[in-house]
Amino acid sequence: VHADADKEWxxxxxxxxxxxxxxxxxxQAEARxxxxxxxxxxLDAESREKYARRFIDILVDSRLPEEARSLLGMIVDSIxxxxxxxxxxxxxxxxxxxEAVLGELELQGSPQxxxxxxxLRAYLYKDRMGKFEKAIGYFNEAVDPPGSLWGVQECLWRxxxxxxxxxxxGEIVGAFPKDA
Length: 180
Known about the structure:
180 residues; 77% helix
């Protein structure tokens, strides 16, 4: 039964993926049908999550974030669900929503997860939102050298603080010669 379900869902997802490339106007209606079918299917939790994750990726690529978000409940682990939610918002360029998801991720308690959320927020601010001062603070909190130091250096450069950026570059080279 499990092999049959695998074959069926793999087929359905592949068909949707090709159809949406051929006729993007019908993609949203097709996606909603497949989302409903996935939610109604008698699948074990592991299979449901596997197909949901795969379909979420396809939906994000199809620029159907609402449908992608509707599948988040199929991801059992709350931290993983937040990671996927962040990816949806970041990839669809809803940076305010992405920032909110990172705030939720930071509240999860695990020091490793909090550091990850701060690192993601630093890159979101630096690369997507142009909030360089805020990014510097989060890079410093994430403590992920040498990556975080490179991030701070780039933010300083973009802020026009060239002397500080140059000094930071010297620190990076001195502390991490292999990464310079």
